């Protein structure tokens, strides 16, 4: 809620960006790779995201997909964000699996 001192006339967009749908084929490959690396993640969790800034820059060149790395406590886009070396290694292994097997 806005405080009473602010009116709708004072609201304006500072940034607008288009949306992007990830490649279903690439997303299935990424999901299979994560599941292959970590059988406990069956099926691999799917997240809906507004993230698109990086994908939008690449979409005209290649299919786009996303893999999220879990952050301690769910804190993301903050100086307090932390990911473990093990989780980074797991994502790198999954990405390498896709590159080696789907290229």
Question: Short summary of the structure?
Answer:
This protein is mainly alpha-helical and about 100 residues long.
Structure in words:
The longest helix has 18 residues, at 85-102. It contains three helices and no strands. The protein is globular. The model has no long low-confidence stretch (mean pLDDT 82). It is 37% helix and 0% strand. By secondary structure, it is mainly α. It has helices spanning 24-37, 53-58, 85-102. The chain has one domain.
Feature tags:
about 100 residues; mainly alpha; 3 helices; globular
Number of strands: 0
H-E string: HHH
Biggest sheet descriptor: none
Indicate the mean pLDDT: 82
* Weakly predicted, low-confidence segments: none
Strand content: under 5%
Cα distance, first to last residue? 49 Å
Helical stretch tally: 3
Number of domains: 1
Gyration radius from CA atoms, angstroms: 18 Å
């Amino acid at each position: 809620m806005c405080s009473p001192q602010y009116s709708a006339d004072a609201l304006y967009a500072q940034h607008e960006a288009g949306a992007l749908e990830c490649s279903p084929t690439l997303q299935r490959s990424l999901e299979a790779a994560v599941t292959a690396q970590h059988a406990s993640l069956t099926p691999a969790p799917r997240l809906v995201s507004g993230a698109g800034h990086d994908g939008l820059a690449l979409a005209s060149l290649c299919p786009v997909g996303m893999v999220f790395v879990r952050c301690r406590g769910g804190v993301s886009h903050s100086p307090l964000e932390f990911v473990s070396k093990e989780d980074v290694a797991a994502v790198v292994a999954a990405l390498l699996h896709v590159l080696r097997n789907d290229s």
